[in-house]
Specification:
Layout lengths: L13 H26 L6 H4 L2 H4 L16 H12 L5 H28 L2 H12 L7 H4 L8 H17 L4 H17 L7 H10 L6 H29 L3 H10 L1 H9 L10 H12 L2 H16 L9 H23 L17 H10 L3 H33 L6 H16 L9 E3 L3 H6 L11 H4 L7 H4 L10 H7 L4 E4 L3 H13 L2 E11 L2 E8 L12
Parallel strand pairs: 1-2
Antiparallel strand pairs: 2-4, 3-4
Helix pairs in contact: 1-5, 1-18, 4-5, 5-6, 5-8, 5-17, 6-15, 6-17, 6-18, 8-9, 8-16, 8-17, 9-11, 10-11, 10-16, 15-17, 15-18, 16-17
Length: 542
């Protein structure tokens, strides 16, 4: 037998090689996203959203502490914190955001693949949120309630669309759609904007059926799913008398009054329509969003003007109209709050992957094939938008001790050595930056559990409303601290707001000590301790 007769070594098939590359790419992408989230600088909003994960065991969400949002995001952070007790407080909260990202990207891929029947559309749909500059900034990186509703909005619209496209009125899909949209509204109240269009569609689709049958086959399962998702919210609203004072009256009263008087403090703030339009443009007409809108608009213009009634193309066009109407409603609602912040304009992005997939499905085979060939280029462009930010995430992972949760934990350890050198706290730590003492395992005042958010509006709250809040203002310090003196006072992050705390400390003999280990984007910590309580060398701290 000659050498040429020997069998050639088996090589990996092209499909297997592509699969390996895809898995490797997804793992690399996940690592970059995780690193981006964990390396993102601490944000003041996290002083509101993260503490309930630790404090809910001691104080109720509204009657026991100040919290000005609907509760599902706080419950989600709490659940992950309890499920993974080995993780520090901020890591568990940001891990929750990372899991929401995975659900958003996975849900977008599923929506594109299920609706349009193409993996290319699935990849394109998943690239839309990943290519959003707004979502790769504070709105999607910090542990707040801004990103958490997006996967549920997307899944709600996708499930409803898939149910309508099936032509069989499947109870399970409609039920899951109502459940998802309800959970989204429980994460953030403004997500309720996606509900009216879906509710209207329940009584208008499928076309050709009597209204009573539509109500039974479509509206009923969607309503049951929505009710199931909202039951905890309804129960809380009925049993917690201060719920609406926190969620509604705060945002329509003290919150607006404070920012009208202090608009110069926040550069990303918009108080009028021109500023809101600029914020909307940054969220909707850049990066992945603009490419997603372009593809959806191009597919819509390429579809038949009058698709035959009852055909798949007609059903896809109807579902696209529902998704588009829901997005327009959410977009209009984003302009209502004053002041407005960039994160207020991200919710319509959740419907864009579904809208694009439906527009592509509505195309006849020939133009659909042409458009599908162009999608990989769009995915590459979206990746180019995301690459600089995701690359910083990979770079941050090289130094785990420099990630934001690690730095916060390091500072908390230094705080514990100073405030409780023998391991036992003599009293609560008073601070407008509650994550540090909470991570250190030190007690805090419930009045300061939300950081500066109740404190800073104290002068703008009517007495009747203030009675609903567990809070303190500068005029309350003597009463609060005389009843329960602080073991320490932590400042150094907002001189204007913290001046009353420092004035109280000086007047009552507290001595300042710098804690360079506590250092974030807002400043470096200064710990005020009672006279004689400062150890010479607390656990190695110079």
């Amino acid at each position: 037998m000659s050498v040429t007769d020997l069998p050639a070594p088996r090589s990996l098939s092209r499909q297997a090689l592509l699969a390996m590359l895809a898995v490797g790419g997804l793992l690399l992408l996940g690592a970059a996203l995780y690193g981006r989230i964990m390396g993102f600088d601490l944000r003041r909003d996290e002083w509101m959203f993260v503490p309930p994960a630790a404090t809910l065991g001691d104080w109720a969400l509204y009657s026991g502490q100040f919290y000005n949002h609907v509760p599902y995001s706080a419950w989600a952070f709490r659940a992950v914190h309890l499920a993974l007790p080995g993780l520090d407080l901020l890591t568990s909260a940001r891990l929750t955001v990372f899991l929401a990202w995975l659900l958003l990207l996975g849900g977008a891929f599923w929506a594109g693949w299920r609706i349009a029947g193409s993996a290319r559309v699935g990849l394109f749909a998943a690239a839309i949120p990943l290519g959003s500059e707004t979502l790769l900034s504070q709105a999607g990186m910090a542990a707040t309630n801004n990103l958490l509703p997006l996967p549920f909005i997307l899944l709600g619209l996708a499930l409803f669309s898939a149910a309508h496209l099936s032509g069989r009125s499947p109870f399970g899909l409609y039920f899951a759609a109502g459940l998802s949209l309800s959970v989204a509204a429980g994460m953030k109240a403004s997500a309720i904007a996606f509900v009216p269009a879906v509710v209207a569609a329940c009584f208008l689709l499928p076309r050709g059926l009597p209204l009573a049958r539509r109500a039974r086959l479509t509206a009923l399962p969607v309503a049951l799913g929505g009710l199931a998702g909202a039951l905890p919210l309804f129960w809380l609203a009925l049993t917690e008398p201060t719920f609406f004072d926190h969620v509604l009256r705060y945002h329509s009263g003290p919150h607006v009054a404070f920012w009208q008087a202090n608009a110069a403090l926040e550069p990303g703030l918009a108080m009028g329509l021109p500023g809101k339009v600029q914020l909307a443009q940054g969220a909707w007409l850049a990066g992945g969003a603009i490419l997603g809108l372009f593809v959806a608009a191009m597919a819509w213009t390429m579809r038949p003007r009058q698709p035959a009634r009852g055909t798949d193309g007609a059903r896809a066009a109807q579902a696209a109209a529902v998704a588009g109407a829901a997005m327009l409603t959410a977009a209009a609602l984003a302009f209502v709050p004053t002041p407005a912040f960039p994160q207020y304009f991200v919710q319509p992005l959740a419907g864009l992957p579904v809208l694009a997939a439906l527009a592509i499905r509505a195309l006849p085979p020939a133009p659909r094939s042409v458009l599908l060939r162009a999608l990989p280029a769009a995915v590459v462009l979206m990746g180019a938008v995301a690459l600089p930010r995701l690359a910083t995430g990979l770079a941050d992972l090289r130094h785990p001790d420099r990630l934001t949760p690690a730095r916060l934990s390091h500072g908390a350890e230094a705080l514990a050595r100073l405030a409780a050198p023998d391991g036992i706290a003599a009293g609560p730590v008073a601070t407008l930056s509650p994550l540090y003492p909470l991570q250190a395992g030190l007690p805090i005042y419930p009045e300061f559990a939300s950081g500066p958010f109740a404190w800073r509006v104290a002068g703008h709250i009517a007495p009747g409303l203030r009675a609903s809040y567990v809070m303190a203002g500068p005029e309350d310090l003597a009463r609060l601290f005389d009843a329960r003196p602080p073991a320490a006072i932590l400042t150094g992050f907002d001189p204007a707001l913290e001046t009353p705390l420092e004035d109280y400390a000086r007047a009552h003999g507290y001595q300042p000590r710098a804690i360079p280990e506590i250092n974030d984007r807002y400043g470096t910590g200064t710990l005020w301790l009672p006279a004689g309580a400062i150890p010479d060398n607390p656990g190695g701290t110079p």
